[in-house]
Design brief:
By secondary structure, this protein is of the alpha/beta class. Helix content is 23%, strand content 28%. The protein contains five helices and 13 strands. Strand 4 and strand 5 form a beta hairpin.
Length: 213
């Protein structure tokens, strides 16, 4: 898919990171288009993407990261869809050179060489009771796992072993948003149970609570 000088971009926007290890950090999100999975519960739009040059992406990131000439966002989150469908290494390298903290959010089924210093958060996805295997070449680079939890869906009711124990990778559990207050309350309760019984860290979609992107 090219050399990374042009990327399929869904949107670029400033916000607060709402989930996982960097929750609450001011951030610029770079959402890439397309995904290699079709999760029924996905609440993200990633199919209205347009090609954008690397220089244009960096220009927008720098614009959104600053207020009145002062950088207020040190974190850039590259997400999707599935960002590792595209050659994002040049974007990561350019951002690191500008002293940004770069976080990737991936489903773990694809791999591309990325510069060291990139923080990789993996959110595994399941089909028919089993999580898709995490690429071994990606696994050693994962900073944290984020498991989406549903009390009603057997595929997502537990945290399965995908390699996190062997490498002592932190695990976050996050309630699935199923668009129903009763179901969502049960999902949160299940996450609380898993956190208290298994020692997992709780992740909430705080951006939805705050009504921000």
């Amino acid at each position: 898919m090219g050399d990374g000088q042009v990327l399929d971009i869904e949107e670029i926007f400033p916000t607060l990171q709402g989930e996982g290890p960097y929750v609450g950090w001011p951030a610029v999100f770079v959402r890439l288009g397309g995904c290699n999975l079709t999760c029924e519960f996905c609440d993200t739009e990633f199919e209205n993407f347009k090609p954008l040059s690397l220089d244009a992406v960096l220009e927008r990131v720098n614009q959104f990261a600053s207020v009145q000439g002062k950088r207020i966002s040190e974190l850039v989150v590259i997400t999707g869809g599935e960002p590792l469908r595209q050659p994002i290494a040049p974007l990561c390298e350019a951002l690191l050179e500008q002293d940004y903290l770069v976080q990737i959010e991936t489903n773990g089924t694809l791999y591309r060489p990325l510069p060291y210093g990139v923080d990789i958060i993996c959110s595994p996805k399941s089909t028919k009771g089993h999580y898709h295997p995490i690429r071994e070449d990606l696994l050693e680079r994962v900073s944290a796992f984020k498991f989406i939890i549903s009390a009603q869906q057997p595929d997502y009711a537990i945290v399965q072993e995908v390699g996190q124990s062997l490498l002592d990778i932190p695990v976050y559990v996050q309630p699935m948003d199923e668009g129903d207050a009763v179901l969502n309350a049960a999902n949160l309760s299940r996450c609380l149970q898993l956190s208290m019984e298994e020692g997992y860290r709780l992740s909430l979609q705080t951006h939805k609570m705050l009504g921000i992107p």
